[in-house]
Amino acid sequence: MGRRQFLVRGLALGCSAAASPLVTPVAMAAAPWEQRLVVILLRGAMDGLDVVRPLGDRDFAALRPDLTGATGHRDLDGYFALHEGLGALMPLWRAGELSFAHAVSTPYRDRRSHFDGQDLLEAGVPDLESGVHDGWLNRMLATVPGLEPEIAYAVEERAMLILSGEAPVSSWAPAVRMRLSPATEELLAHVWHDDPLFREAGGAALSIARTVRDGDGSGEAVGQGPHVELARFVAERLMGDTRIASFSINGWDTHQSQGPRIRRVLEDLGETILTLKAGLSAEAWARTAVVCMTEFGRTARQNGSNGTDHGTGGAMVLAGGAVRGGRVLSDWPGLGEADLYNRRDLMPTRDVRAHAGWLLRGLYGLPGQTIEGAVFPGLELGADPGLLL
């Protein structure tokens, strides 16, 4: 096969969010194949039970009396329904280019730290004591025969772990326009509360930030935010030599007022996926898989602030012309109290790494033993869920 160039580049068009970097890095790699993989990390713990609602479960409504009716939804298969915030993706569902995996999680349990959970998600390891400090995408690339790294370039002072590894990496921190999520605004307000000087100045700054974020004629219109700019850039690179891209969408930490918050970030995710498709040719989209993963799910019950707290089992979003869509994949555990993990969270029935592993096997033909040994140490792939066409 000869010499193969491995290239990691990036661009930061970030927004801040609870428990996630203030700058969102992007990692990319060129590879000797036509199939494209986009990994989107949903930082902050996306509530899979709100995104893909198990309306057919008799215990669901009682767990969330105020959340379920806060926003509308679209029926998927008579049992599960899609949050209205992702309603723009329904044409992909009907075209067989969108699917979901439910009741999934990494092996991370009980501590519920965003930072630890995200590190495990990006490293693809079973626990924090594994001693593995590189990312699973980087390890995957290292297994491809004849693929010799020449240049690795990570954006921002802190490189994205998922594509970090033995390849030499340089860093660059571009000038970026910062955007604050509502969760971060609340954190800053709490920090500033007892300092009158910072409280007044900070409050004025946040007011300006809200005007820019939410729009009053001078802010961003729908479909024109940083997430759309980012998706356009990634699509442009994927039409060139890039075959693997990974970046983050932040703002999924919904402890309070979850209804409006999750709707807004879901709309961002929907626009991101649709922008990726629009930026690719029909042929390229047909060979593309987009997988959206989060560090853990959220509690089955709503809390006293019309939100949800850190949980365990969650959901994945899969899109693309290479995806076998129109399905919600799940060995559904049920939501009865005895069925919940520690009587509080959705019980995970599948390792999120197994789904990622089957994507790598289907897209790039990696042997199962390589995926279980080198890419995701300690993983048991289990039965093929048939994620791809």
From TrEMBL:
Give the UniProt keywords, A-Z.
Answer: Signal
Q: Where is the signal peptide?
A: 1-29
Does the record bear Signal in its keywords? yes
What is a single Pfam family found in this protein's UniProt entry?
DUF1501
Top-level division of the source organism's lineage: Bacteria
Q: Which InterPro entries match?
A: DUF1501, TAT_signal
Q: What is this protein called?
A: DUF1501 domain-containing protein
Q: Lineage from the top down? A: Bacteria, Pseudomonadati, Pseudomonadota, Alphaproteobacteria, Rhodobacterales
